[in-house]
Amino acid sequence: MTKKQKAAFAATKLAELYPRITIPLDHQDPFTLLVAVLLSAQCTDKKVNEITPLLFAKARTPQQMMKLSVEEIRDIIRPCGLSPMKSKGIHGLSKLIVEEHGGVVPEDMAALERMPSVGHKTASVVMSQAFGVPAFPVDTHIHRLAYRWTLSTGKNVERTEADLKRLFPEDMWNALHLRIIYFGREHCPAQRHDPLKCPICSVIGRKDLFR
């Protein structure tokens, strides 16, 4: 099979398994999604969804969030890990959104990436899931599976993102990246994975998986 054929097989199988998809992070608008995605770094979605209601009860808008101190934010988000960095980032991006964007999260990748603690992946998630702009955020699940499925070399996430964007039609990106994440969690974990039983690895997986 060519890479294009493998990609087509994976996309078809993923659509069969996950015909309807939802964003795993609870949110109400672009700002709450931005904060939730930032908090999800090295933290489970489940834990983020437990913490964000507590944070948003105190501050649900950039205007409200910037009025909290960094220490107040840190005390609430501590269970998510990396709280010193994340609290400074949330406070800083809230202030920037108010002062430079009129209190509205900008629908602009470059503007998002300039915000404190907002990297390319976080910006891509917000662009795709909050604004519907085609993007292909690559997390550890997607990076791992793209390598397992021989769709990318696995050298780095930037290369993986570029490879996947070439292989899949743009109108698939926003749904496909979520489907791959769900599949990675439920069928294709990093450890104790049986490729022979995997609905996708068993067909297009790397040969060295079966040794």
Would you write up a description of this structure?
With 211 residues, the chain is mainly α. The protein folds into 2 domains: 3-21 and 136-210, Endonuclease Iii, domain 2, CATH 1.10.1670.10; 30-131, Endonuclease III, domain 1 (Orthogonal Bundle), CATH 1.10.340.30. The protein is 60% helix and 0% strand. The chain has helices spanning 3-17, 30-39, 45-58, 62-67, 70-77, 83-101, 109-113, 120-131, 140-148, 157-167, 173-186, 201-204. Helix 2 (30-39) runs antiparallel to helix 8 (120-131). The model has no long low-confidence stretch (mean pLDDT 95).
Task: Please render the helix and strand layout as text.
Elements: H1 3-17, H2 30-39, H3 45-58, H4 62-67, H5 70-77, H6 83-101, H7 109-113, H8 120-131, H9 140-148, H10 157-167, H11 173-186, H12 201-204
